[in-house]
Fold this protein.
Amino acid sequence: MTRFVGAIDQGTTSTRFIVFDAAGEIVAIDRREHAQICPKPGWVEHDPAEIWRNTVATIEGALAKARLKAADLAAVGVTNQRETTLLWDRETGAPLANAIVWMDTRVEGLVQRFARQGAAARLREKTGLPLASYFSALKLVWLFENLPEARARAEQGKALFGTIDSWLIWNLTGGSHLTDATNASRTLLMNLETLEWDEELLRLFDIPCACLPKICASSEIYGDCIAPLEGAPLAAALGDQQAALLGQACLAPGQAKNTYGTGCFLLMNTGAAPRASQRGLVTTLGYKLGSAPPVYALEGSVAIAGALTQWLRDNLGIIQSSAEIEQLARSVPDNGGVYFVPAFSGLYAPRWRSDARGVIAGLTLFSTKAHIARAALEAAAFQTRELAAAMAEDAGAPLVELRVDGGMAANDLLMQFQADILGAPLARPQSLETTALGAAYAAGLATGFWRSEVDIAAHWRCARRWSPRMGEDERARLLQGWEKAVERSLGWES
């Protein structure tokens, strides 16, 4: 019997392939970054062909490090950046254009068009999502309206739509056009109750059924892989945040996790029924394991978190590597009155303000790059606090504990500040690769490598906890400064 499971973790800035053992421990990992293509202000694109090349390279790299063959893997799962949208040719497999990334804002005009048609309330009712540039359907409409013959080819089934999971599954299986229910739930096209493409919404956006992938469970055998994973079954797919929910073993209603990646994503398991948000959060699918009933979640999304550290590195040159930001931020005792609102793509939950843009507020001659670095870290914590407050109101109870993961969760300074400004304890697991681990769990469950969710829960281990140390007066002062800075970011774009 094989003793390993593989997971492809295709994120906004990089692709990883990770091999896990039966205890959920990492055996080998390989990673490649891909280009962030920004041809115009507000536009963000990825080259799907580059993503696939990097996926192949990371698979080969990790297997070589582990001295394994693909046939040594009991199963492989996929987890991916969500909402990022592309079209490709059914015959050649070639992308028709670059993928439009989830944070891209070029479709804001379409948001206004469909809002004038009165679509927002119906979309929220059927999909759990607001009408916003974040989600896939509007990106697909833009492609249809701007790529010659794209809609006609889609109607004939010659051009295929997918999010990144579908693109990877297509290439991994040699032509299976599939998606899972968690990714489908982020398109504005799937009915959250039936987990099927909704005919009314397809008519609303004028999207032909012929171009859509089949919706599958998050954990089921999709088929056998071809090279570079020939010999291994492909058995799972989940959007990255839902995968992290599973990887963090948030298996009971009320359990919540926050992932500090390119953006920040706070999800709470709400059980077997979707719960409508009254505070600006998203109702989404948590996961669907085989034939078991679906599990739903409340989600709050922040567009820019770790991406801000990357921006300080690449655009301003304040740091030379992302790892330097904690040391720079620690060189000052506080933010010196500086606040950074990274509304580069507007503000997502719970405010949903597409007119906002990034601002650095409170600068004086005393301010240094260290204060800006500290303000950049604190921005992730302030935004997470907004999400947690909204979630507590929706759930009718405060967060008892927040499980944290993602690259920024390794930053101890940020984690302590997060606990302080949140007023609640944090728990960081031994492995921060919970997104890939969730995909591995789902694949392993589909193939019998793991027997049940009990096995998953047993693997979760806490590496460190943080408790709030900040006084109420200091917390209130900082939150007041943040609110003033956010107000100054609003209304920038008409």
About this structure: The chain has a mean pLDDT of 94. The CA atoms of residues 252 and 269 lie 6 Å apart. The chain has 16 helices and 23 strands.
